Amino acid sequence: MTSSHSPDPAKTEDTRSRTPSSVPVDDAVLPFSVDALDLRGRLTKLGPALDQLLEKHDYPAPVGKLLGEAVVLTVLLGSSLKFDGRFILQTQTDGPVSLMIVDFQAPDRLRAYARFDAARLADGQDSAALLGRGHLAMTIDQGANMSRYQGLVALEGGNFEDAAHEYFLRSEQIPTRVRIAVGEEWRGGDGDKPKHRWRAGGLLLQFLPKAPERARQADLDPGDAPEGSATHQVAEDDAWVEGQSLIGTVEDIELIDPDLSGERLLYRLFHERGVRVFPTQSVQAKCSCSRDAVSGMLSRFAPEDRADMVKDGKVVVTCEFCSSVYEFTPQEAGVE
Fold first, then answer.
1. In this structure, are residues 175 and 215 in contact, taking their beta carbons and an 8 Å threshold?
2. Does 173 share its domain with 187?
3. Within 10 A of 322 (CB to CB), how many other CB atoms are there?
4. Which of 6, 53, 96, 160 has the fewest C-beta atoms under 10 angstroms from its C-beta?
5. One domain, residues 256 and 115
6. Mean pLDDT, to the nearest integer, of 154-181?
7. DSSP H stretches of helix in the chain
8. What is the pLDDT of residues 22-52, one digit of tens each?
9. How many domains does the chain have?
């Protein structure tokens, strides 16, 4: 394995070979490249940060797992931002989990929220059943006075891995594969009662050859072609075939194992070709709400709407992301 102090593989010349670290690093993103196959990627393992996001709301286990999957995908995509902006993943569907929002604020702040109908939750529901049908929106917010970019993907009975593949095929046209895993960990706590923790991991792999024709993919199905029409076929590059085969061997337990370091997992996958790793990017669960921000939000409501918010002589606002409660007197809320 080689390591580097530069996050940009294309500009890196000074590298050194070393044994992959056996020290697990949680709540971080590990960028890497496999130059022999023209592959670039990011690996994340989430522990305390994910646990903090989910435990604040005490979600039922299936909902927590689904939101954890959305968090992993957001971290894999949002951590690629090269500016102080936001990457926001949002779902709106007809499933038991009707709304999810995951907000990644570069370089490392993460918050998440899910809305669900407890009466519609049932044993054995997988991610696709919990999501149902609707859409997934991925928004890049570059800040004030800058345009937003948004990509939409239809959710039609698949999971977040399927949605990510569809997004990159249609919007970015970059050959991409994603693996996501979320699990519950039970370890010894005080006395005989085991302590519950959430864990998650994800791996994103992309084929980025210098010659763009090597990354060509088949045309999208037009949907209205006459029956019997020949479909457009493009032979996949051998390097990308190998890359997909390797990421296909990753087990869920490897992604969430607290004792398996990210470097060791990457070495297991790509040691025959050589893998280069770059400095990790930390991730933390930290909401961006504040009393001043909530006050500013209230000021944008019409006076009659603010008046309707007064209950028992005060205006109370609870942040959906972190459950922080902010109280204002009517005068502080601008109610005359």
1. yes
2. yes
3. 19
4. 6
5. yes
6. 93
7. 48-55, 61-78, 127-131, 160-167, 238-247, 252-256, 262-270, 291-299, 303-308
8. 999 999 999 999 999 999 999 999 999 999 9
9. 2
